[in-house]
Every structure is written in C-alpha cells, then in structure tokens.
Amino acid sequence: MATEIRALIEEGVARLKRVADDPRHEAEILLGAALGQSRAYLIAHPERPVLDCEATDRYEAHVTRRAHGEPIAYILGEKEFWSLAIAVEPSVLVPRPETELVVERALTHLPAGEPLDVLDLAAGSGAIALAVASERPQCRVVGTDVSPEAVSLAIVNAARLGLERVEFHVGSWFEPVRGRLFDLVASNPPYIAEGDSRVEPTVRRYEPHAALYSGPTGLEALARIAGEAPRHLKPGGWLVLEHGDLQGEAARELLAAAGFASIATHRDLGGCERCTEGRCPDDATRGQGQQPP
After folding, report:
1. Does 54 reside within a domain?
2. pLDDT tens, position by position, 110-126
3. pLDDT tens for residues 183-209?
4. What 3-state DSSP class applies to 52?
5. Residue 276: which H helix or E strand, with range?
6. Which terminal Cβ of the chain has fewer Cβ within 10 Å, N or C?
7. Distance between CA 192 and CA 21 in Å, rounded?
8. How crowded is the C-beta side of 60, counted as CA atoms within 13 Å?
C-alpha cells in the first residue's frame, strides 16, 4: 500500500521527539536520504505517494536507529563540514560546526597563494585538513592520527573530494612527521575530562572515546601539543587549538608556558571560548617549551 510523503514524515516526527531538538527537520533528512530526494522536494510534494517499498523500509530503519540516539551522520555515513561532504563512521568523531572556527583561524594565518606547510593533529575524518586544503590549494597539508581506521577514512575523503595531495599518516601526534617543520599546526584533540557529567549520553554511547577523553583533567592532550609544537613550527609559525568551553584560560596558560606569543582565544557562534592560538616568535623559542607529560 502506498504511503504519502507527509504521512511518513509525521510518523518519523512522532518517533523522534524524544531524541531530536527538531524532529521534523531530522525526519525530512532521513526520508530524503531513503528516497534519494532533497528536503525541498519533500516539502514541495507532501501529497506524493511513495511506491518504493525498499525506500520505506530504509526510512523505517533510519528512524529506528535515530530513535535509539545514534547520530544522523553515522546513519547516513556523512556530515557536511565547511560545505564539504565528509564521510564519517563510528571510528571518528562527527565533525561539529564549532570546529569550523579552527579552519577560520587557520586560514587567517595562511595567506592565499603562498606554498605553506600545514599540519592537522588528531585529524580523524580529515575534516580540518581537507577544509584548509580546499581553501588554500597551494598549501602542503598533512594530517596525523593514532587510529588506522581514521586515517583510512581520511584518505577516502581526500579522494572523494579530489584533494588527494593531502597526506595522512598513522601515528601519535608529531611522530609521523618527525624532523619536518610547519607554518601552522591545527588540532581538535581530545579535551574532555574523564567523568565529565556534561557529556551527552548518546555521545558517550556512540562516538569513539579515544577521540573524546583526554584524561583526568581534560588538558592532557592540549598540554602535550603545546609543549611539543615549538619544535615542529617554523619561526613565526602558528598553533591553533580547539578546546572545551571552560578551558580557554588553561589553554592560554599552556601556550604561554611553551613560549608562544600573540596568544588569543576566540569564541564560537554560541559565545563560548572555543579556540586558542599562539605564534612561535623565533628560533630561540623552539625547543624551550613545556615537555609532554
């Protein structure tokens, strides 16, 4: 029996109210994906019958998974970031809009037309590295991640987006690029403290813990990056770090202790301190930073 688009959407809305802030929007996204149609098509043709039983079965499966709290990005296998369709899977974090601030700040320090060297630490799906590469095609962009699964996915994303020149390597932090110097290092590292009660249950359940939790304080990864970065930056190079909304002051202190200058923290669209950056002033600074724990 055929079912109208509007009826399928209303069914989805009813089932997603418990987990979604905007259940109608999510139901439309899931139905559009199942049908291979845009949300605009669904909104314009609510009376159209859906005759494809396989499509309605896909929609039912999508809604069931989402009703249990699974992120839509994992259900559909991709997430838009910086207007790029980034493939995601449970081995990597779902890219967040807040992380686009890291890209914005990085681009501020990467003049167009200059062949600069950029490193993305804890690259995950490759979102930051690929966004920078898409905006600064002359830059040599490298990403590292300790997870082989994440690096494999980042390489897939680079190929899908036609950005194969971006390098991705498996390894802990700076190890895969030992001996290389960069004009800019960017990172969205793990920065949640173990036991942080503010983490949403669905995030704890579905997203990779190694990419979320840094240790007892949440500052462990940030401290390590800040301490090691001066040895991997060219004179005048920049470090740009994402961090938690309550970690701005601590991030500034870490960069200052590592010898960075021009330290500044920037707020995301929600008004929260989200990204701290600093400049490596000269050769004398390199190697004098805080040692990693």
Report:
1. yes
2. 999 999 999 999 999 99
3. 999 999 999 999 888 888 889 899 999
4. coil
5. strand 273-279
6. N
7. 23
8. 7
CA-only gyration radius of the chain, Å? 21
- Do both 106 and 39 map to the same domain? no
In angstroms, the CA 237 to CA 57 distance is 52
DSSP for 89-152, please give it: -TTSPPP-GGGHHHHHHHHHTS-TT---EEEEES-TTSHHHHHHHHH-TTSEEEEEES-HHHHH
15 and 57 assigned to the same domain: yes
Q: Are residues 82 and 65 in the same domain?
A: no
Residue 2 binned pLDDT confidence (cut-offs 50, 70, 90): low
* Domain match, 258 and 227 both: yes
SS3 185: strand
284 belongs to a structural domain: no
Residue 177's domain comprises 78-279
Reported pTM:
0.90
CB burial of 63-84 (b: ≥16 within 10 Å; e: otherwise) equals beebbeebbbbbbbebbebbeb
